[in-house]
Write a structure and sequence with these properties.
9 strands; two-stranded antiparallel ribbon; alpha+beta; 243 residues; Type Iii Antifreeze Protein Isoform Hplc 12
């Protein structure tokens, strides 16, 4: 009797599954995984970390080297007024001149004109200057009035013959003026580059009481005439347009 009652009680129940109770969440669909994007993100993280590490390492390997602060003409040397020290990243492929070698560097000369603002490397210096083919360096010693105020290396000038060997006489002029053309106030060099001029470290209008040493870079063909005139103190320099 008890078995039948239990069976009867179960017969009235519905076979349908019970619905979700109030407040329960439906199961979320499984997320789609993208392994390629995940691998790319990991790779970017590794590359960034490697780059940061290299920057730190390079910043740590720094050396003190010589930096040129003012232009050094060919044949001249570094000194305390045209060079200073600066820190750079060490590079085995660059022949930097380290600051500890500065005193030894003063004994060498610039093989070519070195502009200001560059870091010195060993190839810039040697025992003597290298003069370009077909050119010559001529030294002058100029008095007041024979050069313009503020004369600087790198500018272009014209060299004139003045005084001393001016026209020798009316007879020569009558014969064709050959002496006059070779005499005073004639152009020796139309365009010459000032390779070196002594820095008086004063006002541009202040003329030194001693002669001013100047070195000109000229063509080989003009060197002899310029040297002869310079020996006699008959050279005057004039700035030409274009400087």
């Amino acid at each position: 009797m008890k078995i039948q009652e239990r069976t009867g009680a179960g017969a009235g129940r519905s076979a349908a599954p019970a619905g979700p109770s109030v407040g329960e969440r439906l199961p979320a669909p499984p997320r789609e995984r993208k392994p390629a994007l995940a691998a790319l993100a990991v790779l970017l993280i590794l590359v960034g970390a490697l780059g940061a590490t290299m920057l730190v390492l390079q910043a740590g390997d720094r050396i003190e080297v010589v930096k040129i602060t003012k232009e050094i003409p060919a044949g001249q040397a570094v000194n305390d007024s045209n060079a200073t020290s600066v820190m750079v990243a060490e590079d085995p492929g660059i022949n930097y001149v380290q600051w500890s070698q500065f005193d030894a560097l003063k004994k060498l000369k610039a093989v070519t004109t070195i502009p200001g603002g560059v870091v010195a490397v060993g190839e810039m210096f040697g025992t003597e200057a290298k003069v370009p083919e077909g050119k010559a360096l001529v030294g002058l010693s100029l008095k007041e009035g024979q050069y313009p105020a503020g004369l600087k290396s790198g500018v272009t000038v014209a060299a004139y013959r003045v005084g001393g060997t001016s026209r020798s006489g009316s007879g020569d002029d009558a014969d064709g003026g050959s002496a006059g053309s070779a005499g005073g106030d004639s152009v020796i060099v139309e365009k010459a580059v000032v390779n070196y001029v002594k820095d008086n470290k004063g006002d541009d209008d202040l003329v030194s009481s001693t002669n001013l040493p100047v070195t000109l870079l000229v063509d080989d063909a003009q060197a002899a005439a310029l040297t002869q005139a310079a020996t006699n103190g008959e050279v005057a320099l004039v700035l030409v347009p274009g400087n």
